Amino acid sequence: MSPFALEAFVASLPWAALGVVLVLAVTYAVAIGAGAASTVAGSIVAGGQARHSVMDVAWGPGFVVIALISYVLSAAEGDSGRRVLLLVLTAIWGIRLGTHIGRRARGGHEDPRYVALLKGARGSRNAYALRRVYLPQGLVMFFVSLTIQVGMFAAGPLGPLAVAGSAVWLTGFIFESVGDRQLEQFKKDPARRGTVLNTGLWRYTRHPNYFGDAAVWAGLFLIAAESWPGVLTVLSPALMIWTLTAKTGKPLTEQAMSGRPGYRAYVQSTSGFIPWPPRRH
After folding, report:
1. Residue 139 has pLDDT above 80, yes or no
2. Inside any domain, residue 281
3. What pLDDT score was predicted for residue 108?
4. Domain tally for the chain?
5. 164 CB contacts (<8 Å, ≥6 apart)?
6. Residue 278 covered by a domain
């Protein structure tokens, strides 16, 4: 069993946590600034209030910041191949996701999910958002990223499990990026407004982007798990997958789509998560 630099890893945790805090602080400032800009422009964006949905834009890049901090601090400890692989794969995923969500949200209104979440705020809406949006997502970001953080300090060399993990990551990245692209193109056609996308990857799963996200994190876990104690971080990708399938991903999306014509038939014929050939009635 390859040695693990436990002391160096523990010493890196406060720096990774500081990285999360800085990401949240910058995101919060941008959210407040977006609200102020909308007020000056005279537009109606959540009543001129802060746009806290920018947290979605910062989600992917936040993991890149943590990966970069861990990469620098593990320079004298972890296997160089695994460190580079984890950093590159995390950066590709996180930057693409942040860019996609940022482009989608540009010039729009506050996300309805955030409007509903913050509707019950008593007192300062922004202070309430800190407790209900930024703090929970910051904690989840740090916990999920433990797979990357531990993997950076793992000393064992890359092997077959890392190759398998890279293949799983690539599969997930293709599903997520292609699925997002197909949905983006679908929404651009005014004639399709209010209808259901059931072609391309969306023919095989109702959520190719969420499935892809889950596969990305399963792949990163396999890369980290090849060397001790990466296998102990299994709860990190498990939390991400649970969030996507049972918490804020799939359930909220399907709730919002349930009233569209044809959606019930789409649900009956198409896999809910794992890609599978459509069922025939």
Report:
1. yes
2. no
3. 65
4. 1
5. 222
6. no
Tokens for 133?
């949006």
Instruction: List Cβ neighbours of 181 (8 Å cut-off, separation of 6 or more).
Output: none
In tens, the pLDDT along 71-91 reads 999 999 999 999 999 999 999
User: What does the pLDDT average to over 225-241?
Assistant: 95
Which tokens hold the place of 216?
């990305």
The predicted structure's pLDDT at residue 81 = 97
Query: The dihedral of CA 71, 76, 77, 78: what is its sign?
Result: positive
Query: Dihedral, CA atoms, 118, 121, 125, 130, nearest 10 degrees?
Result: -70
Q: Which residue in 194, 99, 209 sits closest to 186, CA to CA?
A: 194
Is 70 part of a structural domain of the chain? yes
Q: Supply the range of the domain harboring residue 110.
A: 6-269
Choose from 41-55, 57-71, 117-131 the range with maximum mean pLDDT.
Answer: 57-71
DSSP for 43-72, written as a single string: --SGGG---TTHHHHHHHHHHHHHHHHHHH
pTM to 2 decimals?
0.91
- What is the maximum alpha-carbon separation in the chain? 63
| Placement of tokens 């198409």 in the chain | 270
